[in-house]
Amino acid sequence: MTGSLVVVGTGPGKPELMTPATQEALAAATDLVGYGPYLDRVPALRADQCRHASDNRVELDRARHALALAASGRRVAVVSGGDPGVFAMAAAIFEAVESGDPEWHLLDIRVEPGVTAMLAAAAEAGAPLGGDFCALSLSDNLKSWATIERRLKAAAEADFVISLYNPASKARPHQLGEAFTLLRSIKAGETPVLFVRAAGSADSKVVVTTLADADASVADMRTLVIVGSSTTRRVGRWIYTPRGAKP
Ligand code: SAH
């Protein structure tokens, strides 16, 4: 097979946060496949490049389409935002390989790492991820709300800093509020909470508050929420988590 498929992430927003390896992969591709708004972040690189924009909810179909293009000999780049392996297309590609044409196992498939929203958001605020942390998606499109609650509870009890991806959408307006209620039953009210909107882009915005005061309506689809651990604290206008608890 002569085709290839590379899964890339455009980073959180600013072009400078797209890696050079990703830029090279995009420049080499004959076909770009992805959700429309992510494809819009990719500048026109060559006249002979085809763009296949799709809806955000049909990840597996998009993955199969990309694999079929690669199997037909095209050099395909599948485009996600942030990092392509974090709540994004890379896993959908492998899921499609697993359930698809056995020939797809022979394809040249590569994943390029990117700057995920959590890292860009943390950098906007200081160093909230300086100690142990975990990341959860609050979206219940692909898993049950009971699973999300169980994981949130375990993360809070283990005193991780918790990054929440997909904190809210028009279809799911109440979940972040429910998540805060659950976290308040385990963590101290003064725990720092950060809402970082459009991290790593020119119009980024950071709101720092506490778990007791956190207002879920501050978050939208472009917001990453970081809930501190018991040692996360303020210094000046920054928020950080010390690397260790030892004196
Ligand atoms: N693959 C992406 C995440 C996709 S899930 C990545 O690695 O970043 C989509 C969620 O990511 C959004 O609902 C939001 O919570 C978060 N997100 C993506 N870009 C963001 C940004 N620039 N600032 C803050 N949050 C962002």
Report on the architecture of this protein.
With 247 residues, the protein is an alpha/beta fold. It has 2 domains: 4-115, Tetrapyrrole methylase, N-terminal domain (Cobalt-precorrin-4 Transmethylase, domain 1, 3-Layer(aba) Sandwich); 118-240, Methyltransferase, Cobalt-precorrin-4 Transmethylase, Domain 2 (2-Layer Sandwich), CATH 3.30.950. It has 7 helices and 13 strands. The chain has helices at residues 20-28, 36-39, 59-71, 89-99, 117-125, 145-157, 175-184, and strands at 4-9, 31-35, 50-54, 75-80, 108-111, 126-127, 133-137, 161-165, 192-197, 205-210, 223-227, 233-235, 238-240. A 5-stranded parallel β-sheet has the order 3-2-4-1-5, sandwiched between helices. α3 (59-71) packs across α4. The protein is elongated, with a radius of gyration of 19 Å. The protein starts with a strand and ends in a 7-residue tail after the last strand. 43% of the residues are buried. The model has no long low-confidence stretch (mean pLDDT 94). The site of S-adenosyl-L-homocysteine (SAH) has 26 residues, from α5 and β11. S-adenosyl-L-homocysteine is lined by residues 9, 12-13, 80-83, 86-88, 116-117, 120-121, 165-167, 196, 198-201, 221-224.
Total strands: the figure is 13
Would you state the CATH class of the largest domain? Alpha Beta
**Treating each run of at least 4 consecutive H or I residues as one helix, how many helices?**
7
Number of domains: 2
Question: Portion of residues in helices?
Answer: 25-40%
Return residue spans where pLDDT drops below 50 for at least 5 consecutive residues: none
Q: Biggest sheet: strands, sense, closure?
A: 5 strands, parallel
Shape: elongated
Q: Architecture of the largest domain in CATH?
A: 2-Layer Sandwich
Q: Do you know the CATH topology of the largest domain?
A: Methyltransferase, Cobalt-precorrin-4 Transmethylase, Domain 2
**Major sheet strand order:** 3-2-4-1-5
Quaternary assembly: single chain
Rg, rounded, reads: 19 Å
Order of helices and strands: EHEHEHEHEHEEHEHEEEEE
CATH superfamily of the largest domain: Tetrapyrrole methylase, C-terminal domain
Ends: how far apart? 58 Å
Structural class: alpha/beta
Beta strand %: 15-25%
Mean pLDDT: 94
Hetero groups: S-adenosyl-L-homocysteine
